[in-house]
Write a structure and sequence with these properties.
CATH class of the largest domain: Alpha Beta
Number of helices: 8
Number of domains: 2
Strand content: 15-25%
Order of helices and strands: EEEHHEEHHHEEEHEHEH
CATH architecture of the largest domain: 3-Layer(aba) Sandwich
Structural class: alpha+beta
Mean pLDDT: 85
Largest sheet: 5 strands, antiparallel
Shape: globular
Length: about 280
């Protein structure tokens, strides 16, 4: 009898958390973002807490201010550490924000590293806010794949010849392992993701930022793929009146802001048919 042991992750990476102290000198610091760099020098600066969660914890006005300030800090950290190692001392541009200590670990790849680092950096108050949610749990890890399959079925049902453009793998220079993309055809590329309930927003936020980063790297390979449009095709609940609708609206706007920093796009809908029509039009 032979035993097959699981392969140990070998992607080395380091990260530093971005923390906020909402009440000066209170000592209560919450991790709201991070900046991560792999051994291959790939860099991701990401926000970990959606604005809706900050508004719920600290009230609408203060939560909105923290969310806006966090965007500035994430952008500043991204620009600074794109030229410096993580051991360098970067000073957040706004009072009340702090840079955490340098930490290191192993993961499968940089996308997995972002998830590992975000779990290691979770704040107690954030964890409590998630536990207090009474929304039934949904397997959020399967949500993006369910959404991709729905779009695939809708697209190929109308244009069968487009099937070959789904699930394409591309090797990015300096990255090593091939990256998998939801759809690449002509001058258009898309990644797919989905959020079903309010409880899944934080996970979707982290996944989506990773996919935006992938699209950004893909576009850099302009000699191989002369791409004009790179976007995240997102499933989000329909916008209706009510507090929950505002939560999802804020989430979509956050992602659009993150995409705009890289000249990327976000297309959000709750209909696979609408998403499929959009993909077909873009791929034409």
């Amino acid at each position: 009898m032979t035993f097959k042991f699981p392969t140990l992750p070998d992607y080395a990476f380091s990260w530093r958390s971005l923390q906020v102290e909402p009440i000066p000198f209170s000592g209560e610091r919450i991790t709201v973002g991070l900046v991560l760099k792999g051994h291959d020098q790939a860099l991701i600066a990401a926000r970990l807490v959606p604005s809706s969660r900050l508004k719920r914890i600290y009230g609408f006005e203060m939560g909105a201010r923290i969310a806006d300030a966090l965007s500035l800090c994430v952008d500043g950290a991204d620009k600074f550490y794109s030229r410096q190692p993580l051991t360098g001392d970067w000073l957040p541009p706004l009072e009340g924000f702090y840079l955490g200590d340098l930490q290191s670990s192993l993961a499968e790849n940089i996308e997995d590293a972002l998830i590992v680092a975000s779990k290691s950096s979770s704040s107690i108050s954030l964890a409590m806010s998630l536990e207090n949610s009474e929304e039934p749990a949904r397997p959020e890890r399967s949500a993006p794949e369910d959404w991709r399959k729905s779009i695939y079925d809708a697209v190929t049902g109308r244009r069968g010849e487009l099937a070959e453009f789904f699930e394409r793998s591309v090797t990015i220079r300096g990255y090593g392992l091939p990256m998998k993309f939801g759809f690449i055809a002509g001058n258009y590329a898309a990644q797919f993701d989905a959020v079903y309930g309010e409880k899944g927003i934080q996970q979707a936020l982290i996944r989506a930022q990773s996919k935006l980063w992938q699209l950004d790297r893909l576009r850099d390979e302009s000699q191989l793929f002369p791409l004009e449009t790179c976007e995240l095709v997102l499933k989000a609940p329909a916008q209706e009146a009510g507090a929950e609708s505002s939560v999802f609206s804020d989430f979509v706007e956050e992602l659009k802001f993150e995409a705009s920093r890289r000249d990327l796009a976000v297309f959000a809908t709750d209909s696979a048919i609408v998403a499929a029509e959009h993909v077909i039009e873009r791929a034409a």
